[in-house]
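Sequence in, structure out. Go.
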Amino acid sequence: MNKSTRRISGSNLMAGLFAYMSRSIPAIAIALAVSVTFAWADEPGSEAVTSLESIVVTATKTPHTLRDVPVETVVVTREDIERTNAQNVIDVLKNIPGIDASVHDDVFGTYTWRAKLRGLNFNDGYGLILIDGQRAMGCGQSGGMGEYGTGLNQIPVDMIERIEVVKGPGSALYGSDAMAGVINIITKKTPNKPTGSAGVGYGWYEIKEKKSSSGTVTKPSDDGHSRNLSTAYVSYGDKITDRLGYLVHYSYDSAEDIGQEPVKSYRHSFMGKLDADLSESIDLYLKCELSDYEKEENNRDEDSYRVSAGMDFRPTDDHFFSIKGYTYTWDFTHGSPGYPYGYKLGDVDYNQGEIQYTWYSSDWNTLTVGGELQKQGINYLIHNYHINDNGTWTETEKVNVNEDVDTSSLYVQDEITLFEVLTLVGGLRYDDHSTFGSEVNPKLSLMYRPLKDTTFRASVGRAFKSPTIRQLYYSTPYRHGGYYCKSNPDLDPETAVGYSASVEQWLMDDRIMVNLGYFRNDVDDMVVREDTGTEYGDPSLPLMEYRNVEEAWT
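Output:
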């Protein structure tokens, strides 16, 4: 059983300007295997409002309607997002079966690092998070933990067009970290005509007292007083010519945290897009994203920059080529000189290029092949401090981390449809990792539709996850809360075999869908943090170390 929260909206203005008052209420959901979705018509006599004909691409890197996608996929549309009055991405996703956000706090700037997909933690890299098909990084602004952490709240919800959630191992197409699945956050498109929108929101909330297992009651310093949250956005797009269009979008978020003391966090986000149709067969696109996040407590400052570009080429209806690449940098400063839990500053970056070719050889066969080059770099400095009895501080050591990880990949996938009711998808990816050598990850999926409204899907696949740079490369132990943690350069990569099967039944002219599913992930060499039984530092604190465990499963 999961305990989740739902935000209750106050008022809404259709023009986009709205004000709201919200509070959290408990709800109970059974998320093990059963889900029910309702899709009703807007007006009597109109067609049911469903997203069955939505085109999805994440599951196979080829377009399919949601009804016909052979790999288990859930789509959250822009209309779904607006109906939920969601404040962040976890608000949008928390009711999807298989995603556990039961300890989520729907306040901007708070940690949401416990969010899981099929029992495996996003923050530790078991679920791959993409923005427009490209890997994302970031912790504080997104709700992750530490400089290695990855959270779901990467961008404001008002920038999002839709979200595609692909469940099950995805390493056969996406490589490392796609062990439990892939979440692709797809941003708004450039419009075909002059289109502008704007919105503002304001809310308030109270922090309740906390009671520990020992019975100790802790009240917030502003007990009985409300804290504030706000948001605002503005966007505009148009066609410059018949073949050239643009979109610009700005968003602002702020809140005052949920801790003992009110602490303000805020984020400025900007996105610009430029799309060009050079001809009937060639499309070009360029995108720029900027984000500036600050949290007043402990001087948390994070800036991210992403520039991406690509070209789609369709020489004939049977052939499709895609070339794309991006560069992404995430700069951070956590803490300040003298902060007892450490002072960290530096940057993490991704650079990636990919080429993909798809051949529609017949009505029943589609072959996809591709190659990818990826470079991840990290360069930062950690200062550890000892606080003296008189309140002064002394720097005890510095930890410098400067590493690059290169990955070269090739992948192939074949989609075969037999007898119009059975689809088989076989995929294989080869990764050459600069630290761990080669990895080969196969996957086989099938979809069987005995009746028009009944679909059976099943898959089995292998996935892997390389340890994080924090787990591998720190030269000395680092302070983390009430203990020190030690890297382990001898760690092995984690591998997993995932199985899943589900049956989907649509009823009442596609107004109700019932889905029953089962999954299992068997993980070898999972990286965990264990107590060494010794102490380290001044003052002396327990010393933890990263180690592989032989087996784990969800």
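Check: The helical segments are 78-84, 89-93, 171-174, 469-473. The chain has a mean pLDDT of 84.
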